[in-house]
Automatic annotation (TrEMBL):
The lineage of its organism: Bacteria, Bacillati, Actinomycetota, Actinomycetes, Micromonosporales. InterPro entries: DUF1800 (IPR014917). Residues 1-95, 141-161 are annotated as: Disordered. This is Uncharacterized protein (DUF1800 family). Residues 152-161 have a biased composition (Polar residues). Residues 24-33 have a biased composition (Basic and acidic residues). It comes from Micromonospora palomenae.
Length: 684
């Protein structure tokens, strides 16, 4: 585990500071400018996009879980079974080069995915804040709170606390390479099926130019045989309409089994009241929420809904592990994000700003008219609406923070404290209000009006549109699509379903085959889905009388995702995870994912049920080359290139024409894992 006294890499290097030195208090304040935030664990894997800060007070325990496990539940492979790990040497007796062949396949994946494999560090993010007394009219050019040095007239982008993550990463050489292969221009068709039929795929990609496979790769957490069959049976338009009405989709058996997670349905008040009893039982509500999210991503039929839940959890981000998350974060997921994921973003932003999770996460509960805390006001503008380049100034941040005073949490519930609310005229961007009423309902309603104003601001429309296009289309989405989505957002007043229909009816979406790379979480979830892992315990599971098998298995997947560096709601800072390939280029993470795929093929997590590797193909062909083709069709839903096929045959150590049995002469698990290491499984 990293030395907690070593600050993360970032702005320190710009000041000539190097790890091992300690900044002076003035230097520290100059970089961070945020007394409500404390240093988190410093040096993390440079291949992971983790920032270095978390909300105060300090977390109750270590939050990063590294490859050593750090107390995680684990399983042990039986001696003498399974697939050699990637660092094993070549086997004697003819089956040569498994390590080299698999590395070559993975190298192909990296090259095809982005043109370069660069280990990227996220920049350190600072936060602005303070406890300054404020009174009177704050709309003028003069700062009235005694802090003459405040940059109140400057554009926020000149004193930004965050870079726009995706654009920052894509400014690299690898990003430039990706841009050259991205689709450009486009138009909207009468519907998704028409757009799919009329759009040629001209980008270079190893993925099959099959619109059904493309839709399944982007609108779900990974294509599976059932998903592909559903789309072909319903048609593209019918399947999308089905997915856009998730309330009518029956819960899957795995979703019904979520009743085995005892804290999932409890309210914040109940969680507060039962905290001691839950602790005695070892129940961690914030982790059970993540466990449940993982289960839904793998097994729910409401796949597009789950994809959008994940999107909004990154866009309007509250970390699962913040201090207070054990009480409030599950309710935020249920009552804010899931309640509005396919509904209205303005409604989501208003609900979020009245929820204890966000109010505590960004220290709004500590903000009073005589001691302003700017954290929530800043992030509402910078991250949750118009964006750092959306046109607001530092004066706008200050006035928004003043307007939002009075909002807080008491006894586990949202409360508006009228005696702590600043009264006086405010002007934020184009929103202005006298803000003169001491009536709590009227004062609270003014804040809601402001939040709806910024939620529908033209800059917010562009920001949401660009983020959505980056998630579904390309790391470098075409401006034509972003502008079209922004117009739809504005015309429909922030409603999500029209946005998605515009997206799926656009040629840019269907032209972007293979232009997205799965992040670590997406890779692992897609692996579970394509292998048809089932939520029931296998016959080899041995209960110890503790937690049910399903709950234990989910926690193990959760812990594995922590090792890989990405898990639902896992980013500690309010900016959420980056959504571009160059932020996730870590060879160690890639290898860890491949080895997990091998564990699934071997059925080592006995908490779940698996199809054995030799039974993945119902009637295996008798020759090695044909068997590889059949396995590829089953696992990645298309054939491999001749070069990739040759590499995989090298893993088995046989020529294409060799006779093989259902076990691929003992190599079927190795062959299947190699296919899951191919670009066809890494790309989506």
């Amino acid at each position: 585990m990293a030395d907690q006294n070593v600050p993360p890499r970032g702005p320190w290097e710009d000041r000539g500071w190097t790890p091992g030195q300690h900044p002076t208090p003035d230097e520290y304040r100059d970089v961070h400018r945020s007394t409500p935030y404390v240093q988190y664990q410093g040096q993390v894997d440079p291949g992971q996009p983790h920032a270095g800060y978390a909300t105060q007070p300090a977390p109750r325990g270590p939050q990063w879980v590294g490859p050593e496990g750090l107390g995680r539940q684990s399983f042990h492979q039986p001696a003498g079974t399974g697939l050699p790990q990637l660092d094993d040497g070549d086997e004697p007796g003819g089956r040569v080069g498994r390590r080299r062949a698999l590395a070559a396949i993975g190298g192909t994946a990296a090259v095809v995915a982005g043109g370069a494999a660069l280990a990227m560090n996220s920049s350190v993010r600072g936060f602005f804040g303070g406890d300054d007394a404020v009174a009177g009219d704050a709309t003028g050019t003069t700062v009235t709170d005694g802090t003459a040095a405040r940059p109140s007239g400057q554009q926020a982008s000149t004193v930004r606390t965050y870079t726009e993550q995706n654009e920052s990463y894509m400014g690299s050489r690898a990003g430039a390479a990706l841009k050259k292969n991205a689709p450009t221009g486009g138009r909207t068709f009468s519907g998704p099926a028409a757009a799919a039929a009329e759009t040629p795929v001209t980008v270079k990609t190893v993925l099959a130019k099959d619109p059904v496979r493309h839709l399944a790769s982007r609108a779900t957490f990974g294509a599976s045989p059932k998903t592909l069959a559903d789309i072909r049976r319903m048609g593209i338009d019918g399947w999308i309409r089905w997915q856009l009405d998730p309330e009518k989709i029956a819960p899957s058996p795995a979703e019904l089994k979520l009743a085995e997670l005892p804290s999932l349905k409890l309210s914040p008040v109940q969680l507060r009241e039962q905290r001691d009893q839950l602790n005695d039982k070892g129940v961690q509500p914030e982790r059970e929420m993540v466990d449940a999210t993982i289960a839904r991503q793998i097994w729910s039929e409401r796949q597009l809904f789950e994809v959008m839940v994940d999107f909004w959890n990154d866009f309007l981000h509250v970390a699962a592990d913040f201090d207070g998350g054990e009480v409030y974060r599950n309710s935020f997921d249920r009552d804010v994000v899931r309640a509005n994921a396919l509904g209205s973003y303005p409604d989501m932003l208003v609900a979020a700003n009245k929820h204890p999770a966000l109010l505590l996460y960004l220290s709004q509960n500590d903000s009073r008219k005589d001691a302003i805390n700017e954290n929530l006001a800043r992030e509402n503008l910078e991250l949750y609406s118009v964006g750092v380049d959306g046109g607001y100034t530092e004066k706008d941040v200050r006035q928004a923070a003043m307007l939002q005073t009075g909002r807080g949490v008491q006894d586990g519930r949202y409360v508006f404290r009228a005696d702590q609310h600043y009264l006086g005229k405010v002007k934020i961007l184009g929103f202005s209000h006298a803000n003169a009423s001491a009536d709590p309902k009227k004062a609270d309603a003014v804040i809601d009006s402001y939040l709806r104003y910024i939620a529908l601001h033209p800059s917010t429309a562009q920001y949401v549109a660009r983020s959505l296009a980056t998630r579904f289309v390309s790391d470098t989405p075409p401006k034509s699509l972003v502008d079209r989505l922004a117009k739809t957002y504005t015309v429909n007043k922030g409603m999500v379903k029209p946005l998605l229909m515009t997206l799926f009816s656009s040629s840019e979406f269907w032209a972007a085959v293979g232009q997205k790379v799965r992040r670590p979480m997406e890779y692992l979830i897609a692996t579970y889905r394509t292998l048809n892992v089932r939520p029931e315990a296998s016959r080899g599971f041995k209960s110890d009388g503790g937690r049910p098998a399903f709950a234990r298995g989910l926690r193990q997947v959760h812990d594995k995702l922590r090792e890989l560096g990405q898990y639902p709601m896992g980013q500690p800072t309010p900016d959420g995870y980056p959504d571009v390939y160059v932020a996730w280029t870590s060879a160690g993470t890639m290898v860890n994912g491949w080895n997990e795929a091998a564990d699934l093929l071997n059925g080592y997590r006995t908490e779940f049920t698996y199809t054995s590797a030799e039974n993945l193909v119902a009637k295996p062909p008798a020759t090695a080359g044909a068997y590889v083709d059949a396995l590829a069709q089953r696992l990645v839903h298309q054939k491999l290139s001749a070069k990739e096929k040759a590499l995989i045959l090298g893993v088995a150590g046989v020529p294409a024409g060799a006779k093989v049995d259902a076990t691929f002469n003992g190599a079927v698990t190795a062959v299947a894992r190699a296919i899951l290491a191919s670009p066809q499984h890494h790309l989506r």
